[in-house]
Amino acid sequence: MNLELKLNWADVSHIVGNQHDHQHHHYESTTSPPGPPNPYVFSYQAGRAPGHVDRQHTEVSDGTGVVRGAFSYVDPKNQVRTVQYVADEHGFHPQLSHELEDSEAVKAAKQRHFDLYNRIAQEHAAGGVPAAVSQTGPQQSEAVIKATNKHLSLYERIAAQHAAIGAQHEAARLAFEATSEHSIQPEDNSVYYQKH
């Protein structure tokens, strides 16, 4: 029984370019150039009840990337809030009609955050590692320990199976090479493998 496997090589350096010969290759961009400015204007008003406007939005673009606009809405405290903005190449720049005031819960959360931040900064400045972040880590429950051990056991079993499969493939490859005859055909850069 003869088994013949033919491999072909092709020079693709003209497609992917020679890394040592950058000065002789010119790559063209396929990106289309930007079109002419396309300015726009839009505006709308809406409300939850007929004849009652509780939100509106207006926006104007000059077509060069600068957008100016304003929107307003009625907040949960029945206050009209308006935001005027400019968006350009430097980002989005809003201006609020009313300063936002934090609720008591937000004020307390911010204070806890700043207190914790300052405590951590002081500990780090002193070069110490806080006791709460020792190397022991968090306590694990029995269920977590059991699940971790099961995972590790399955992982080791699968890794062993993969190693055995890899060894079988390597043995088959070596056996094939030991019984194969290699020859290069100079006329078309092909390699022929013939099994005897």
UniProtKB/TrEMBL annotation:
GO cellular component: a single term: chitin-based extracellular matrix
Keywords, comma-separated and alphabetical: Cuticle
MF GO annotations: structural constituent of chitin-based larval cuticle
Transmembrane stretches, start-end: none
Superkingdom of the organism of origin: Eukaryota
Listed InterPro entries: Cuticle_Struct_Prot (IPR050468), Insect_cuticle (IPR000618)
Cell membrane is among the record's keywords: no
Presence of keyword Zinc-finger: no
Protein known as: Cuticle protein 7
Lineage: Eukaryota, Metazoa, Ecdysozoa, Arthropoda, Hexapoda
